[in-house]
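One such given next:
>
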Amino acid sequence: MAELIAISTLNGLLYGLLLFLMASGLTLIFSMMGVLNFAHASFYMLGAFLGYQISRWAGFWPALIIAPLIVGSAGALVERFGLRPVHKYGHVAELLFTFGLAFVIEEVVAMIWGRLPLDFRVPEELDFPAFRIFATNYPAYKLFMLTISIAIFAGLFAMLTKTRIGLVVQASLTHPQMVAHLGHNVPLIFMSVFGLGAALAAIAGVIAGPALVTQSTMADLLGPILFVVVVVGGLGSLKGAFIASLLIGLIQTFAISSNLSLSEAFANSAFSPASNTLLGDIWRVTIAQIGPILPYLLLILVLIFKPTGLFGSRET
């Protein structure tokens, strides 16, 4: 039991921090532009595929730098020549634009790399057990993923709270007209933040690619849970995105590792419904089986009891 708790906690923190790398960019974009970018998970997928391709040519470490730069630049261009002209038609047009962009990116990726999973391997330098927890070896690459995620979170938090650039960005989130009157180029700030958000998603893609499955449907698998994180944390709240990411990461990780069911929990009770009935089926469903829907149940509860999210101020 202690081993299960330790491993699940580490894996939950890792998954949660990867979610935050993407949710942070999405949160900043929403705070500044009021747009829920449906193509954000596609930038994550694009980062994974570019990381795979560049790693084949130049190695993993150059790919970790070059792929996010490419995706971040592409994200900035999307804001400048896509979202900015569409902005005057309202939020519905922006949502439709990003929704269509997500399909375009997925099909382009499928055309170039195909629809089968790629053999994106862990770099040899990190392909060894870092330490041992009870009877389980914890991979060094997962420890690397955990470390780089924490470092990026700390760097992003420090930039937004301790630097002049961060103060200008934060002011632009809430008072863009005042910032413009002070002589700052607000459209350039918007474009830079959008590019930064795309780059953060790409970093998550590059470091998650070797550990998870790199395929053309990976954006579809992660996109919905990403919006759950943003809504549960509170639209526009970076702190909320961080807390919600860790919360959902831990919930899902512990859920899929638990085979407990109502029948086991109440094994000593006299109540035992027939196995061929609906109640009997529910009685024997394990937590692992309902694990994938737990974040969405959390989303429903948050929307019912606190529509602004845990730390948000905007209505969802």
